Amino acid sequence: MAHRTHRHRPEGPCHFSLMSLAATRRLLLVAAPLAGLWLAVSWAAGWWS
What we know:
- By secondary structure, this protein is mostly helical.
- Helices cover about 65% and strands about 0% of the residues.
- It contains 1 helix and no strands.
- The longest helix has about 30 residues.
């Protein structure tokens, strides 16, 4: 079989950088639409004038 599992040592630097990158991307994927929705609602409500 050509498929091999890709493993890192949990204490290695690669593991932590990958985990922090994934967490940052998840946070941005959740926060970006919420921020856009908040901006649209605040603009429509006339809070910026």
